[in-house]
Automatic annotation (TrEMBL):
A Pfam family this chain is assigned to: HIG_1_N
Alphabetical UniProt keywords: Membrane, Transmembrane, Transmembrane helix
Species this protein is from: Myotis davidii
Transmembrane residue ranges: 27-46, 66-84
Name recorded for this polypeptide: HIG1 domain family member 1A
InterPro entries, per database record: Hypoxia_induced_domain (IPR007667), RCF1 (IPR050355)
Signal peptide interval: none
One of the protein's GO biological processes: mitochondrial respirasome assembly
The HIG1 domain, residue ranges: 1-93
Example of a GO cellular component annotation carried by this entry: mitochondrial membrane
Keyword Transmembrane recorded: yes
PANTHER family hit by this protein: HIG1 DOMAIN FAMILY MEMBER 1A, MITOCHONDRIAL, HYPOXIA-INDUCBILE GENE 1 HIG1 -RELATED
Length: 93
């Protein structure tokens, strides 16, 4: 009985930092989206003290919408970039 052991073991030997760098080169807008999300959340937490008389739930909803909007924008730009590379920037044979 033969077993399918065609799995590349090199991916298991890869460290977390090198795996992240490889994935970032494959899809460069993913780390940008993650960084933007973290920045918006950090800014929202910083502004939490000086929100005035705004309700906490309204402040959190605004922060969530801004963070999700940034991530969706980064995903859209990444998809457009990959479509550009795939269809328009590809050299014609």
């Amino acid at each position: 009985m033969s077993s399918n052991t065609d799995v590349s073991l090199s991916s298991y030997d890869e460290g977390q930092g090198s795996k992240f760098m490889r994935k970032a080169k494959e899809a460069p807008f993913v780390p940008i989206g993650m960084a933007g999300f973290a920045a918006i959340v950090a800014y929202g937490l910083y502004k939490l003290k000086s929100r005035g008389n705004t309700k906490m739930s309204v402040h959190l909803i605004h922060m969530r919408v801004a963070a999700q909007g940034f991530v969706v924008g980064a995903m859209t730009l990444g998809m457009g970039y990959s479509m550009y590379k795939e269809f328009w920037a590809k050299p014609k044979p």
